[in-house]
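1-deoxy-D-xylulose 5-phosphate reductoisomerase
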Amino acid sequence: MIVLGSSGSIGLNALSLARENGLQIDALACKSSVAILNSQIEEFAPKLVYIDDDSLKSQINHKFVFSKKDGIEKFLKACDEQSHGAKLINAFVGFDGLIPSLKALELGFDLALANKESLVAGGKFLDCSKITPIDSEHFGLKFMLKDRPKIHRLIITASGGAFYNREISALAGASVEDALKHPNWSMGAKITIDSATMVNKLFEIVEAFWLYGCQNIDAYIERKSLIHALIEFQDGSSTAHISKPDMRLAIAHAIGLGEQRVIENLDIKLLQNITLEPIDLDRYKAFSLKDELLQNPQIGAIINAANDEIVAGFLGKRVNFISISGAIFDALDKFGSFKLDSIESVIEINQKVREYIKDRYMV
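Predicted structure tokens:
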């Protein structure tokens, strides 16, 4: 198994499962976490490693270390030579995960994808039939689609994030610290903010479109994060995927451990007070783009770039919380007609949007 993003929550959970089940780790990659990567090297003895930050390369305790200067594609090619067809988990964060996804599929790796941006920005250019999703919602949909009738509608759920109960008028003054207090999941900072704005759910909608080829997709708020996905079938029947909120379940299925007990079953008595609520578009303004995004999925590249940049500004305390949705709509007004007909055009628009958001919001 190869793990890209080995120092993040998905990577750490994947390596925990590998440790418990005696799985071989052939290669590891992370952005800049030297201490974590060196610890993983000592434990798992990978053949190859990658650290994105060139200046940290000399600090890695391994004979074969790649970095940004060498290029992630060169690293993956070396991985292919060592471990052709291996399971590859792409848990990189952000747009930087797109090229590794493309290259992994090109080289014939068995791609388990936790990097949302690969599909949000570049789903048009990926062979989605060869991707195993690592996400509680998309794992739930995949799990329920085995040998089932024709789909009528896909439904995923959202917790509502940190500000579900906050007065809408008070959102402008919301602090970074408060936004990072997710009620149910322990995740990285970026995805936790995306949960508070519902942009994360917007991204999951377009991911489901690319993965399962259905445009009739909705999302509802389920505050306990116990129901992760539902499917309505053409015959009038419906089914739901229910489990404790634990990402180890989706990861285990993605790496071939789905036939054993991964987590404890949910006490079904906990479902007696479950409610599914429509998403309030006054509170979560960006989610109003859902139908437009499903009709024109290529704008995902624009939304993703604007969101990445403005969320970084919010985390850096340079813009306020409500600027996030405003920046997304602003970028779509500016670049919505840009033609995205190649991966090069996706990379170009990503750069243009980021520069625009920086200049407009973070002078």
